[in-house]
Amino acid sequence: MNLSFGKIEKNDNVHLASMIRKSFIEFDAPTSGTVYSDPTTDDLFALFQHPKSILFVVRDNDIAIGCCGIYPTPGLPKGCTELVKFYLAKEYRNMKIGLRLFQMSINYAKEAGYSMIYLESLPHFAKAIELYNKEGFQSLNAPLVNSEHPGCDIWMVKKL
Hints:
Layout: E1 3-7, H1 13-26, H2 44-47, E2 54-60, E3 63-71, E4 80-88, H3 97-111, E5 116-121, H4 126-134, E6 138-140, E7 154-159
Parallel strand pairs: 4-5
Antiparallel strand pairs: 1-2, 2-3, 3-4, 5-7, 6-7
């Protein structure tokens, strides 16, 4: 393994879109109303040109194999951002690589001046939800925002 961490680059788009969609298939997660069918998944580089957003990427030999980021989703309360696109290729899981991406994203949110982080997920991604709980995210009964991903049915927040 020759891992490197950094911000998304345009040439990461194809690898990340493929890896994200493979994760949905692997976990038998719904493809409709989720990031799987979201057209922005094919051009994450363009999406993360938005101010006060970032997508951290881990690469193995310059091939993107995981990501996690922060995005100021429209409609969220003032000072709140969203943790988004937290995925890691199967063969790289359980090695603390995802945890590092996650922590980089949380640190960025603090540095960018956000006071709260929101996320949406699915029960299919139980291991990630375990991490969110361990890291102080609290469950909500309903979404904070009218989501682009109505297929998600787990909503959580963390105060920074």
